[in-house]
Design goal:
Length: 58
Amino acid sequence: MNTSNVTSMASMLNNCKAMKDGNVRCIGKKSGVNTSNMIVNSGLTRLPFYDAAGNWTG
């Protein structure tokens, strides 16, 4: 998913229990974007952000 124009991702993947680390890749996170509760109650253990080159941007 290209998230470069997103301003809030709060609760975006909340309760997506079938999701696992590695099957979600968000590209283009910028500073100031709200990611609160983004992965709560999901199968993810970390926020899935990478730059266009595939480097982890956490």
